[in-house]
Write a structure and sequence with these properties.
alpha/beta
Length: 1005
């Protein structure tokens, strides 16, 4: 008997999938039963209705002779108007009867009737379905629920050089018309392309503009799927995702129809999007739900999902499903499964879009209305909980304060979802949260019934994460403290996230762009001179840092860099109409003062160029520069609340910031970033990630991204991104004994005595007034500042270690396995004392005098890396906990230098490689200025021209003509001028400043 050999064909894959689906509860349909006009399997459609709802059919038939046609027409019109989800979730009213088209998956608390109804659902799969009246084309597979088409699949075999990624997607784009009923928008919930390696999906067919998303599991932090030694790499699709229970769960709890455009008040069907979860979104929600149902309340979960992972939707789906989480049924809890695990879900976020998504999602999913509330103050949260609100939304900033007064809710159980969990959700920010969610109220107790030690212990307990709340922390860039607080502890003592969707996978799947693929760095060169005669001694490192900071904030320095930034943006981005002419840039500066100076410099340059577009500035509060007070709204000319919307218009192209908008700001039109700020670790990743938002609407690609960095090196940026490119792991828990070491060091200084710490704590927890506590703090501060006659280094070391103690204790207190009253007492004393500690040294005053006595002679810029690609490390990133040693100020002896030596070293360090001495450069500038003035075109082509752009062109021509004429005498200078764009820009800028001013007669010889 001959054996049939495989030929690895598409048909064999189709056979395998259909057989697997049939084994798991599907029935196989007949292609001839498919109705092309209404996209239903007529056999299974009527079979389901007759078997499950005969009485309703009889009622309809009483008033309609052609009752089947009446039902079909009513069904078709409803789907056209509201989509298939409306029918599947809410059924259909026909005359005086109601028809259901999907019985939902029963809950643990559901009746036997609900279980029996669910079993009446019919799941079917039909092969090679001819779907069009216009041609004989067929789609490989169609999945039906009770006769209604819900999913289509096109299959390919990579062994035949056909792939889901290219060939199947092209088939949907070119050969599957959205005008055919089966492919109408919202007629099916999703369309898949599939081969033996990868899967892709879309919810809207739109010809050549159809956009498919990957639907892959990911492979070790990368795109694709893990190798399956037992079969196809895409088996999860039919063996997991499309299983009957899973499919009903997706329809009931994940798929939603809505819009994320907040400006559309009454969207039509065409305004909406159909959201089907990507694999990692579905997986993380299901994994979390399974763990909660098994473990109950009280665990902490860290979800490390990159930008571009769709965290807003993941949080929305999780929030709704947690409302309906029930414990797994066991013998022990059989009598308690009717009560949900959580009384309420609290979502802590600053994203307005989440607010809208939650409302919209729950409106679609829930039969009970009005279960969402907002909490701006503590009474709002209390009222919402008392009124049975199931989802409560609040902001990260307001959350601790909202919970301050709520102490009587220890009998309630909460799920707390934290959007972008970082240090703001560690330490003291959790104090108020845990006070509200985990401690009995003492409002009804006599205030004298508790002694002060009880109050201290109670405060310590308040700070801990209590057992009546589960925490779900979402972040792309977990810090060590976040990993330790929310991560899963491994056997080896390390901490890992509960779930991972890596930056690497997001980039490879095309959801975000690789911002470090086109990175250019610049190095600054300075030459300064001192104008004081004496030479006091300084700490060399400290003075060098102060001098560099001084030079970088000078207007002359900022003007040079602002011109380079603007010239690059105009010529490489704006003029080239990148992003279909909508491209924007962000300028990131060291501080608010620098942001104001940059904004003013850019505006001056824009005015010279005829104002082709506008710049905008963003900063918080009020800042005084050169005696003038500035605010964001005053500088921009409109309210601060309008900054985001204004910047979204084409009128504004450049946004200048210091810290504001470096995180959580999504503007897909951003494609260039100019950085003049030290960026470290998480801040580097979050700042540069402002550029990574993909935007198919504008054809945004990685090649459109530009980063010009005046401050950081490629090595710095690589080190920051490597930590978060794949999975981030904390190597070990923080050694809590460092608190003992720091406390010992602080105690030995003599700023306070132990009995004074106890007395202060008694006063504080006994409710003493501010004036009483301030009096005690003044005593300690006076000892530190004067009485103990501490040296500058001793003062600095005490204050640094005091801050270290407060920071470490506030973070570790919530996860300590024990309480230590001594630490708690000292924590509250140091918190109040630290601001009163004066550590300004005599050298600080001397350095201020030094900065007032130096002049910036020369400033220049050299490009050190051009459009470099930073290759990130794909290995797991392991970060260490916070430095476990007490901070000290004297690990090495200070290097003391005279002022002359410091200035000399500074100039050598920052002016080397510039191929001319400062004096030679002065002579060169003066001589060139004289020759420009004497040039025949200078007066009538430069001075007489009003158009600034034309003036710049003429100036460049004149200078180039002079330099070319002198090229044999100045060959090195000529080469640098014509080959290095950065040098040329800086040189021309400086030269024009001199040309436009009168030359002192003493200089002209």
């Amino acid at each position: 008997m001959s054996q049939t050999l495989t030929n690895f064909s598409e048909k064999e894959l189709e056979d395998y999938i259909v057989n697997a689906l049939v084994l798991n509860g599907y029935q196989q349909g007949n292609p001839s039963d498919f109705d092309k006009t209404y996209a239903i399997d007529t056999t299974f459609f009527w079979q389901f209705l007759h078997a499950s709802q005969q009485q309703a059919l009889d009622n309809i038939a009483k008033f309609n002779t052609d009752w089947q046609k009446t039902i079909i027409h009513r069904l078709n019109n409803t789907i056209k108007k509201y989509g298939i989800l409306q029918v599947l979730k809410k059924g259909l009213d026909v005359d005086n009867a109601h028809l259901d088209f999907l019985y939902p998956l029963p809950l643990a608390s559901s009746s036997q009737i609900a279980h029996d109804k669910y079993q009446q659902n019919i799941f079917s799969v039909t092969r090679q379905v001819r779907y069009s009246h216009k041609n004989g084309n067929s789609v490989d597979l169609v999945l039906f629920v009770n006769g209604l088409a819900v999913i289509t699949l096109e299959l390919k075999s990579t062994h035949k050089n056909q792939t889901a990624r290219f060939n199947a997607i092209e088939q949907y784009k070119l050969d599957r018309s959205p005008e055919d009923t089966l492919f109408n928008f919202t007629r099916c919930i999703v369309h898949f392309t599939l081969d033996n390696q990868e899967a892709f999906m879309t919810t809207r067919l739109n010809g050549c503009n159809t956009f498919f998303l990957p639907f892959n599991k990911g492979n070790k932090g990368s795109a694709g799927n893990p190798a399956n030694p037992n079969g196809f790499n895409t088996e999860y699709l039919w063996n997991e995702v499309l299983q009957p229970d899973s499919l009903v769960n997706l329809i009931s709890h994940f798929v939603r129809l809505g819009t994320d455009n907040l400006d559309i008040k009454k969207p039509t069907l065409n305004d909406m999007n159909l959201y089907f979860p990507r694999y990692h979104q579905m997986s993380v929600v299901r994994r979390l739900m399974s763990d909660v149902e098994q473990a109950g309340v009280g665990k902490r979960y860290l979800i490390q999902h990159s930008a571009g992972s769709g965290k807003s939707n993941s949080i929305t789906w999780l929030a709704y499903q947690l409302i309906e989480a029930y414990p797994n049924q066991t013998e022990q809890n059989a009598d308690r499964i009717e009560k949900p695990i959580y009384d309420s879900v609290i979502v802590v976020t600053d994203r307005k879009i989440l607010d809208k998504q939650l409302k919209e999602n729950i409106k679609q999913f829930s039969e009970v209305k009005g279960i969402i509330a907002h909490a701006e103050r503590s009474k709002d949260l209390r009222t919402a909980l008392e009124n049975g609100k199931k989802v409560i939304i609040t902001t990260i900033q307001k959350f601790p304060y909202i919970l301050d007064d709520i102490g009587e809710m220890a009998d309630k159980k909460f799920a707390i979802i934290i959007d972008e969990a970082h240090s703001s959700q560690s330490g003291q920010a959790h104090d108020g949260m845990n006070t509200a969610l985990g401690i009995d109220s003492d409002n009804d107790k006599d205030s004298d019934s508790d002694d002060n030690q009880d109050r201290i212990v109670q405060a310590m307990e308040n700070r801990k994460m209590r057992g009546n709340a589960s925490y779900f922390a979402f972040t792309a860039t977990p810090k060590d403290s976040t990993l330790e607080k929310f991560g899963e502890k491994q056997i080896d003592g390390s901490f890992k996230p509960f779930d991972l969707y890596s930056m690497k996978q997001a980039i490879e799947e095309g959801f975000i762009l690789d911002v470090v693929r086109n990175y250019t760095t610049f190095k600054s060169y300075y030459e300064i001179q001192k104008s004081v005669e004496d030479d006091p001694l300084f700490d060399s490192t400290k003075a060098q840092k102060a001098l560099k900071s001084y030079v970088e904030r000078q207007q002359q320095t900022i003007d040079v860099k602002a011109e380079i930034m603007l010239d690059h943006f105009i010529s490489n981005i704006y003029a080239k109409k990148r992003l279909k002419g909508h491209a924007k840039a962000m300028v990131v500066t060291q501080n608010i003062e620098a942001a104001i100076r940059y904004y003013q410099a850019i505006n001056r340059l824009l005015e010279q160029k005829g104002n082709p577009f506008k710049a905008i500035i963003a900063f918080s509060g009020e800042k005084t520069v050169n005696g003038i007070s500035y605010t964001e709204s005053q500088m921009n000319g409109f309210e601060e609340s309008k900054t985001k919307d204004k910047f979204d218009t084409d009128e504004y192209r450049i946004l200048v910031v210091a810290n504001k908008y470096l995180t959580g700001f999504d503007q897909p039109k951003l494609c260039a970033m100019y950085i003049d700020k030290k960026l470290r670790d998480v801040q580097a990743v979050q700042t540069l990630s402002r550029l990574n938002r993909s935007a198919n609407k504008y054809d945004k690609k990685t090649e459109d991204l530009f980063v010009l960095d005046f401050f950081n090196t490629l090595k710095d940026i690589k080190a920051a991104f490597d930590k978060y490119f794949t999975v981030t792991t904390l190597s070990e828990a923080t050694d809590i004994n460092v608190l003992n070491d720091i406390k010992t060091n602080l105690d030995d200084v003599g700023v306070y005595e132990q009995h004074e710490v106890i007395e202060y704590a008694d006063l504080y927890f006994g409710g003493a007034g501010m004036e009483v506590l301030q009096g005690r703090i003044n005593i300690f501060a006076e000892r530190f500042n004067h009485e103990l006659e501490l040296s500058d280094n001793e003062k600095i070391e005490f204050k640094m270690q005091a801050k270290q103690f407060v920071k470490l204790y506030s973070r570790l207190a919530s996860i300590l396995p024990f309480n230590k009253i001594e630490w708690e007492r000292l924590f509250w004393l140091l918190k109040a004392l630290i601001p009163e500690l004066n550590v300004r040294t005599t050298e600080d005053d001397a350095i201020d005098e030094l900065l007032e006595s130096v002049d910036l002679n020369t400033y220049a810029i050299e490009r050190t890396a051009l459009a470099s690609t930073i290759n990130l490390d794909s290995d797991e990133a392991v970060i260490d906990p916070t430095n476990p040693n007490p901070i000290t100020t004297h690990p090495e002896p200070d290097q003391q230098d005279e002022l002359d030596e410091i200035v000399k070293n500074f100039n050598e360090r920052w002016f080397k490689n510039w191929h001319a001495t400062p004096e030679e450069q002065r002579v060169k500038f003066v001589n060139l200025t004289k020759r420009i003035h004497e040039h025949p075109d200078f007066k009538h082509k430069y001075l007489a021209t009003q158009d600034e752009q034309h003036r710049a062109i003429e100036f460049h021509k004149i200078v180039k003509e002079i330099i070319v004429a002198d090229r044999r005498k100045e060959i090195d200078f000529y080469k640098q001028f014509v080959q290095d764009e950065a040098f040329q820009l800086a040189f021309l800028h400086s030269l024009r400043n001199i040309v436009d001013k009168p030359i002192p007669s003493a200089e002209i010889k």
